[in-house]
Design a protein that fits this description.
This protein is an all-alpha fold. The chain has 19 helices and two strands. The chain has a two-stranded antiparallel ribbon. Helix 6 (about 125-145) packs parallel to helix 9. The protein starts with a helix and ends in a 10-residue tail after the last helix.
Length: about 475
Amino acid sequence: MLNFRPLLFILGLFLSMLTAFMLIPLLLAVFNAEETVGSFMLSALVTGISASLCLHNGQSKTINLNIRDMFLLTSLTWLIVSLFAAMPFTLYHGIGYTDAFFETMSGITTTGSTVLSGLDTMDHSILIWRSLLQWLGGIGFIVMAVAILPFLNVGGMRLFRTESSDWSDKAVPRTQSMAKYLFFIYILLTVACCVAYHLAGMTWFQAINHAMTTLSTGGYSTSDSSMAAFSHSAHWVGVFFMAAGGLPLLMFVHTIQQRDLRIWNDAQVKGFLFFLTFVSCSIGFWLWQTRDIELLDALRLSSFNVVSVVTTTGYGLTDYGAWGAFANIAFMFLMFVGSCSGSTSGGIKIFRFQIAGAIMREQLKQQCHANGIFRERYNNRIISEDIVRSLITFVLLFVIVIVGLSVILVLTGLDPMTSFTGAITAVTNVGPGLGPIIGPAGNFSTLPDVAKWALSLGMLLGRLEILTVAVLFHPSFWKY
């Protein structure tokens, strides 16, 4: 049976936190005498009242959540927080609620697709709110990926199950402790990224915004030109910290706690870093040979764009769609990849490709030795049958959602390239698609409202690893 009172109480806590963060752009708007003062004031008031009602009506002596509660809570949190967080945008002049919700969902899922333009002259309070949404969404997903998804066995995530993934009464203090460590490392990396961006030529305001959207692998910028508006050294800073955002944050925690770098001897970390290096160098050398670009510039352009897409950050630097057919095919594949589990990135994730490779090796051995018994391992853990089933289900649903979204977008009148890459970039939380409309040089403002709502759903599905939301639509979930 679903425990609605604890769910209501926890949602109230999240809305309270959202109210507190709304005060940051409100104070900035007051300081700069911006038009958004009323927007943020009213939004904070409505959100705060709603949080108080949820907390009052959800009070109970104990909070006991079962597995069905966790599935429902995970989806409801992202959806309801997005509904309230969209208010400052919709109260801001010229933005309808469809665009406001799309921008918010894109922000809080760290997708980075945008419907806004004129960012260079936009009120600072709106710009900082966009960045805060991505920064909060990034740390929120990390905690969920470390503590909740392994417990729910979503998409093969049980391989990363730790003590904090055991949702018993005894595990709650461990989970809270781990969340504090993760939050501390997240802030530390954000501050380091901010200082590095400032040293690379950004103003403090630009550096703060881009640090939040880099570590969260979100991709929102303060300029319509995105990262093309800044120095080459800022691009290399972005490459480094986007890659850091694509690594498991838990690894940083273990390194500090245990004072031992051997923890980085991890299969998915090594695979992720090798993949980024290999693909960046390959495309860089291809650009150098075929596009008459100097080698260092070619490596900078390829590294930035490859890391941006693989980590699902989605910053724009140059329209790689104009590099030709080879680049289009390469980047369309890179949209699917994603980074490491326990990072802020979306996508399929490196570990799933590695497990698929291990399963393939096992099957080939079985073909050669029909009576043999082979058990593949990943990071010294046996790949069990339930992990294989969960992974196959995830990938199958991943493809079905992309195909379904593509069909919906085509029916709204969009061309096949925009529809297909728009569906991919939403579900993988990358940001830009391919083509002249939603490519790195465009945005999503001209899409029909139906397409924006469909893509918003795709972003939510992709951020929550699809299965977390899909299970809510199964009739047995609601049977007591």
